[in-house]
Amino acid sequence: MSWTELLPAAPEITLLCLICVVLIADLFVSNEKRVITFWLSIVALIVTGWSLMATAPDARTLMFDGSYVSDAFSQVLKLAAVGFVAIGFLYARDYLKQNELHKGEYYLLGLFGLLGMMVMISANSLLTMYLGLETLSLSLYALVAFDRNSAKSAEAAMKYFVLGAIASGALLYGISWVYGITGSLQFDGIARALVANPELNSMPLWFGLAFMVVGIAFKFGAVPFHMWLPDVYEGARTPVTLYIASAPKLAALALIMRILVDGFGDLHDAWQGMVMVVAVLSLVIGNVVAIAQTNIKRMLGYSAIAHVGFILLAIFTGSEQGYAAALYYTLTYVVMAAAAFGMIILLSRTGFEAEDLADFKGLNARSPWFALMMLFVMFGMAGVPPWVGFFAKLSVINAVLIAGFPGLAILMVLASVVGAYYYLRVIWYMYFDAAEDKSVFQAGLDTRLVLSLNGIAILALGIAPGWLMTLCIQVLQ
Amino acid sequence: MDLTHNILSLLIWLPIFGGVAVLLTGDGDDAASSRAGMMRILTLVVSLLTFVLSVVLYMRFDGSLSAMQFVERARWIEALNVDYYLGVDGISAPLILLTTFITPLVVIAGWDNIKIRAAQYFAAFLILEGLMIGVFAALDGILFYVFWEAMLVPMFLIIGVWGGERRIYATLKFFLYTFLGSVLMLVAFIYLYGKTGSFEFAEFVQIPLTLLEQQLIFIAFLLAFAVKVPMWPVHTWLPDAHVEAPTGGSVILAAIMLKMGGYGFVRLSMPMLPDGSQHFAMLMIVLSLIAVVYIGLVALMQSDMKKLIAYSSIAHMGFVTLGFFIVWSVSTSTGSGAELGITGGMVQMISHGLVSGAMFLCVGVLYDRVHSRQIADYGGVANTMPVFAAFMVLFAMANAGLPGTSGFVGEFMVIIASFKANFWYAFFAATTLILGAAYTLWMVKRVVYGEVANKHVQELQDLNAREFIVLGILAIAVLVVGLYPAPLVEMMSATVEQLVEQVNLTKLPGV
Fold first, then answer.
1. Cα dist. B313→B92, B157, B242, B353, B409 in Å?
2. For A423-440, how does the pLDDT look when each residue is reduced to its tens digit (9 = 90+)?
3. How far is CA A63 from CA A3, A67, A418, B222, in A?
4. Beta carbons of A406 and B180 less than 8 Å apart
5. How far is the C-alpha of B452 from the C-alpha of B446, rounded, in Å?
6. pTM reported for the whole predicted model
7. Disulfide check for B27: which of A168, B13, B36, B446 has CB 3.0–4.6 Å away?
């Protein structure tokens, strides 16, 4: 085996080496100069992004005996993940400084989580997938508990850890059944085994598959395995919530696409029903329960559950359009989620977490510009054109209708109307109510600039939605 | 430079970018600063330029053609075969003219009444104008839907930020009602896309559809358009929205936004689903007559002037839908004259845009002075505001359908057409001549005539120059359309003829 064969895995190897450098460098950085760790992490991300671009293979490439794959799909998701982790770090920096939480661990755990995501995205076997998933999950558990003095964070981390361990167990149990029946851990191997022996497609395999769907649904936060999600969103410090709510969604998409589509694509009939039930429940319960929330982080948590319902319905169709729509929806949702939590961070300041909906009251009087950005985010999430969320919903509904489920399409649009109410409530607080809090934002200029660009991107991607949609279709061919 | 090639794009994007520029100019938190003055002048210039452009459109518009004119087409979303596809015909061109005519008047009417965040207020109206023109000009389903929904956003903010006491309730109700109505239209569009592979309206008109498909799609469209018109029984958002909206918002709502429902019926439902529409025509006629008679009676009972005009809008819009949906009964009973109903409905839309806008502006003039919309708080206004009283009486007459005013033309055409269809349609429709006169003139009697009722009325100042210009221009428009409607009718005649042909062709497969 020559070194060049490792080239498609170079980004992960580069990232791991750089993490070690940052880890050691952080030891010699004093608390006042912690910003050095931040900049080192950003450099690490830029180098990783560059190596992703530089080592992109021309065609789908397998390595490590077929356990690892590099293709256009992984390329796009990894680049997006690196980008959103960088944006998350930038939003987090000032907040962490103000709240005396500016420790190197935030960035390091974030980078380790990214490594886990990249491994997941490129996994071509169940075991690689599991390794990546656990690397990501353990980083996330630790990140949630990152504020040692907060009982709420500790509780959320505990809940996340225990429930996450159960879900990982379910996934592993499912993996063991599938391995026992098909004799392969690799996704294409599983697919081949199913083609060669159609009689394998029976109850024992479905049993294993069901456990795997449970594990996937948990990681995605889909109903009825969503209980951890609102608590973790609320309990974690906002920069951590931002991290959890953005890039890991991309890895979760890779998880479901690699397992259900690459591995069990031919068993579409077997998993379609399960995915539909989970998706419809997520859509309905996420949107309805979000209405009752007064904490905006919790509200966005339930809204994330509803959005996951859309993504799962796109995958449920089992069609090319559906998969492309799922990818498009996830990418655009993450843009909006990053901006939403970025806004919460912007409104927070020393010793004050702007996590109540009421904290957004009168934002238009305090800062018309950022009120406008939040308006973009909210209308984007609600699926009102011309913001990008509309086109994401459009492509999913299109896929569902083509697959022949008009009833589901109607349910989706009606759920969007219910959802519109709680997004509108944020706008109502910002624009129609008087400000209770008149403090000045503490965030730095670079944060403001990136947050503005993030908000404008939601509009710009909606006015010119074509290229990303086309990209998503090409990537999956 | 020849404007003809992209005049529609200019009409849409000039006000939108103008609105963004106004937003960026800002008013420095002080509505009386010189910066705020600049901002107002910029708004007025943009809205007047847009109007001039639309006049150019009118001059170059060829009324003898039924085809789309000023067509612009470019690829927008490759993956879904969506085009940026614009064009106007005899149905949409008059509505675009109405939009560009009303918007500058709204800008002038709000000139110094808006004290808080004036830049955002004027920007919202300009952006709204561009989006509304977009609705009338779009010939691609997704482009149409984008404008249709995006339009809700500035109106949501206009009612919510600058509205009255119960503005939040009213604006949420407005948004959610119209949003709920519209989403099923989107599903119908995507369904049709699945059949034709394109979102182009012309393709939707061509594709054969079974009766069941047509009926279901008709219902989906009906929800979207009936809420906008609004038709009884989905009209309840309108009185709330009108009452709570600032004057400018009420004017735009009544004059233009309601027309989108009627426009949707003639642009989408009727030509795309001729059999489905025919199947539901009876239902539509009954709902229209309920609007005319029942809502007319409801209007009679109102004590709030804005609410009264809101209900009268619903009743008048009943004429529009009546005129459209009697086309089949006219065709089968007499074989000709079906054009009259549709043309009448269209003229009624334009006329109602002018008259209801003027009525809301009149109420706005009173409200600015007394801060009350209650009829009981006024009386004898004619003694202190004679010029205003003259305008108000004129518009009230037009609202009641007096010959010589624009209100008469449309209603008369619709009533004639419904006589050809069925005596009883005409009978119930004609009750509006009594009811409309009753609620409008009774209100005018109580507000304008009689003894001076209280010291507020005693202290009233008559119209200032700004208000005089706005009401004067509207009065001229009302009289011109009333006395000489021929240019308007000629503008739409070829398109209406083609529409009547289309709706009488069956689209059922295999027929």
1. 21, 22, 10, 9, 16
2. 999 998 888 888 777 777
3. 12, 6, 47, 57
4. no
5. 11
6. 0.92
7. B36
